[in-house]
Amino acid sequence: MKLSNLQKNFYILFSLVASVLIATILWDKITLPLNNTIGARGILVEKGYNPNNDTIRYIFFITFPIILFFFLNLIFKKKKININQIIFEKEEKVQKKEYILVIPSLIFVLLIILEFLSLNLSNYRLDLLHDGDFLTPALNYFHTKNFWISSYTVHGGSDILYPVLMWKIFGIESIGAARSYFIFLILMVKLLSVFLAYQLTKISNLTKENKVLFFTIFSLVLISMSHYNFPLNYSYFSYRDIYVILFLIFFINLFAFSEFRTLYTILISIIAVISIFFHIDIGVYLNLILAFYIFYLFFLKKYGEISLIILSAVFTLFFAIYLIGVDEFKAFLDHTTTIIFSMDLMHGLKYPVPFFSMEGNQHGARATRGLLLQLTAGLLVLNYMFSDQNKITSSKKILFIFFFFLSFIMYKNALGRSDATHIRMSTDLPILINCFFILNYFLIYIEKKNKIKNFLNQKTFFIISAAIVILFYILNHNNYRIENIINFNNNFSRFINLKDNDFIDQKTVKFLTYYKRISENDSCIQNFTFDLAIPYLLKKPSCTKYFSSWLASPIVKQKDYINQIKKIRPTYILYRSSATNYDVYYGVDALETHKRLQLVNSFILSNYKQHYEADGYIILKKN
Fold first, then answer.
1. At residue 587, does pLDDT exceed 50?
2. What whole-number distance in Å separates Cα of residue 192 and Cα of residue 211?
3. pTM of the predicted structure, to 2 decimals
4. Pairing, β 572-576 against β 608-614
5. Is the peptide bond before 535 cis (omega within 30 degrees of 0)?
6. Can you tell me whether residue 572 is helix, strand or coil?
């Protein structure tokens, strides 16, 4: 019996739903024994849970339905993917610039700048953990002139380099000045989001009128994905994503047959190398994509471009080593490799079971949405691969394979730290891919309908686009304040010149006053708590590079930590703080430092005794 297209689509859809259900049922069945040879400790280690379980479960959950969708299209619809056509597609002429998008682009740039100038800058609460992530390393640099040698950070060089740069630019070492790097980077993310929308609009096969409407809606989506939050910035597009967006902007041009191909090839190589110095995870993902692209060029026999990428990357790497020094580079490598192989054990959370955890787990609903967004992104890309012609874009289809591959591997952040905020951060590219295809298909559908097409003339498209922008402005009216715009310079100057005491409560002030008095003759502060900003507030560097003690959880790092304490011989050690557990606000799993670093804790208790205890703080003094 011959099946109709409707019946075929029904069987495919039913099979996809069934495959998702099967993957969900098998989620908890996929298990590996815990393998913790490095001796790191975290919540998952305490429970005997291997964090790699989540990665394998995720790969199965996403790939099983996609593979099934592939074979069902082969069987029912006789669709095939012409690999040779995708890989070896003939190059087209250099595309002309889309001047029709210039005015909308300028309008978006203006709105973004006005929103930036309208910022309130009234967040005066100090987050001793997350603010401390960059305040203390920056202070360490000013005292030691070292980066990775002096500070073992959680994210990478960004925790040191950004605040140091802000302090030097504004000439003041303050909390406000250090925090200002967040708002400037988010401003750049928003502006670059418009350029990314422009690049993707430029390569589309929509009519000029439709491109205006597509660009308007798509830009608004991307702009709304980032927010001026600090020191916790867990937007869909966070300040960390600036390198991803930059990379994609130039990467798209390599598939748009641009006349500046050589320049863009050099730029993506430079961005990939630089990113790993600032953000370890982002750098790893971008370099994986770059390696995948080199592999693709190898099939095309474009050995010249491969050589250009390798030479650009190597030159950038050696130039970076020249700037920071060989010893710093060795410290960077040690830091990076340890974080890559131990972070999931130290900081990981179990990924919620899709669907079944939505009611009882506060992170369950977002975890399920994240997986479904990733899955639909993969299905949309695969469906586009099946199309006989480039219905959506005039660029090579393989560009979207790269897009999905980057989206697929970047979701590792959500699998590592599986709470709602980190999951949200990891759904940026899936949202981008879904929005791109859905919006394109919708506008292509409109183009095919003659009645709608006749109504939507060029003027109408511009009017609709303008109406969407105005509506967006009205809905976000609180983001635009005339008074703040006029007084931006005064507001910003006041913010960066605020005193440290403006950010902390009286209990912390009382403790700091006492600690300053007893440590007057000490040149450094040794902190064994999660209150990472304490050394900064005392205006003294940390005695060891492990200012964030919990990161020294691997056995080899604990031994190094002990050796540094033996060498420095600090008189006092801040052993506990008023928020040692951070189980509610800070979310470091209520696992105290002394449980994470048992070797270091044993050494400290053998050589130090309690000197002070009040308001939750405990200070130890050397025997």
1. no
2. 18
3. 0.91
4. unpaired
5. no
6. strand
Counting every residue written for the chain, the total comes to 623
Closest to 598 in 3D by CA, of 531, 549, 532, 534: 549
pLDDT band of 111, cuts 50, 70, 90: confident
The amino acid at residue 447 is E
Token pair, residue 220, equals 């608004």
What average pLDDT does this structure show over 171-187?
Answer: 93
User: What is the DSSP pairing of strand 526-527 with strand 572-576?
Assistant: parallel
Q: Taking 60 as the threshold, does the pLDDT of residue 456 lie above it? A: no
For residues 75-85, average pLDDT: 70
Read off the tokens for 605. 């208790």
What is the DSSP secondary-structure string of 76-102? HS-----HHHHHTPPP-PPPPP-GGGH
For 305-314, the pLDDT digits (tens) are 999 999 999 9
Host H or E run for residue 513: helix 506-518
72 — pLDDT class (breaks 50, 70, 90): confident
Structure tokens at 213: 């409407």
Which token pair is 565? 């304490």
Model pLDDT, residue 148 = 94
Q: DSSP class of residue 552?
A: G
Q: Dump strand ranges (E) for 194-315.
A: none
- The Cα 293–Cα 266 span in angstroms is 13
Calculate the CA 171 to chain-centre distance. Answer: 29
